[in-house]
Amino acid sequence: PFDVLIVGGGPAGASAAIYAARKGIRTGIVAERFGGQVLDTLGIENLIGTKYTEGPKLAQSLEEHVKNYDVDIIKGQRAKNLTKKELIEVELENGAVLKSKAVILSTGARWRKVNVPGEEEFKNKGVAYCPHCDGPLFKGKRVAVIGGGNSGIEAAIDLAGVAEHVTVLEFLTELKADAVLQEHLYSLPNVTVYKNVQTKEITGSGKVNGITFSDRETGEEKHLELEGVFVQIGLAANTDWLGDTVNRNRLGEIIVDNRNNTNVSGIFAAGDCIDSPYKQIIISMGSGANAALSAFDYLIRN
Ligand code: FAD
Fold first, then answer.
1. Nearest Cα residue to atom 46 of ligand 1
2. Where along the chain is NAD(+) bound (predicted)?
């Protein structure tokens, strides 16, 4: 069996693997796609100490760094079940069962998509999901934010500080964001809010040049010319496969303490799949390191 088995090979999992392996303990990592969300990212400008890199390049260097240590890497495999017996057992979709004394869950998250024409085509070409990451690319430009919940309105306020103009598109008749955020939003001069509207299409040629939406009451369609669209309709943790083996919050995020312990001893969690407020590469890396050090501490005490 492994001493530590890490499930998920994004920034959190890679960091956990390196920190565990450096303790000289038997470490394994299983990942469906090594690199995780980083593989889908173009430019990265906020990984401190690296002025600029690109997702695929960072994913490759994460893997090279892990391979520098004695870590069993199992790629292209999905975990489908977790059980705690004498050891913790992780069952893969191919039927294999991996056993370990401690497990670190780092299966990340995914942005919910609006699923309209143009979204996929112009991803990273004007369609963005992370205002902290891509906001500065739209300095002086016009953008839309799809989604009027807390994350959408926070994004709109954030973007209003850099972009020339921000349009918020909300599907429901009211914004769902906290009142204080709405007040702040409505105090800004360069923001327009449309409620009860449905996004129909993100238009462009090579890159985004506009958005089409319809009024849900009258059916009337409107087209706006703009350069960027931020989709802010929620982030979903990749934790469905866990069922109720570990405690999760209503968003599906795994609940951990400040040592990344879940409610089950020997099972830790790190990165975007936990109940932490901000989801970023550097935060996930720190979280993975914290979880691995906690797992090591657990192993020497048990
Ligand atoms: P993930 O990166 O989501 O990795 C999860 C890992 O778990 C993957 O290996 C996946 O294959 C695996 N996995 C999932 N389920 C299973 C399963 N059942 N069995 C086995 N393996 C499984 N952050 C920044 O800091 N800067 C940026 O510029 C930036 N830009 C972004 C742009 C885009 C388009 C996106 C989508 C995200 C961006 N982010 C950015 C956010 C950043 O990518 C994430 O915060 C970070 O990747 C989270 O790392 P993680 O390891 O927790 O999870």
1. 281
2. 142-156
Residue 41 pLDDT exceeds 90: no
Q: With a cut of 90, say whether residue 48 has pLDDT above it.
A: yes
pLDDT at residue 42, rounded to an integer: 81
**Band of pLDDT at residue 43, cut at 50, 70 and 90:** confident
Average pLDDT over residues 14-41: 96
Core vs surface per residue 205-226: b (16+ CB within 10 A) or e:
eeebbbbbbeeeeeeeeeebeb
State the residue range of the domain holding 173.
127-231
Evaluate: CB of 90 within 6 angstroms of ligand 1. Answer: no
In a domain, 78, yes or no: yes
Which pLDDT score is estimated for 248? 98
Beta carbon of 15 within 6 Å of any ligand 1 atom: no
Please check whether residues 227 and 241 belong to one and the same domain. Answer: no
Kindly state if the Cβ of 210 falls inside 6 Å of ligand 1.
no
Q: Is the pTM of this model over 0.80?
A: yes
Q: Give the separation between CA 86 and CA 164, rounded to whole angstroms.
A: 59
Q: Which atom of ligand 1 is closest in space to residue 128's alpha carbon?
A: 34
Does the CB atom of residue 204 touch ligand 1 within 6 A?
A: no
Domain contains 116: no
* Domain assignment of residue 225, yes or no: yes
pLDDT of 40 reads 86
Residue 196 and residue 220 in contact, taking contact as beta carbons nearer than 8 Å: no
Report yes or no on 115 lying in a domain.
no
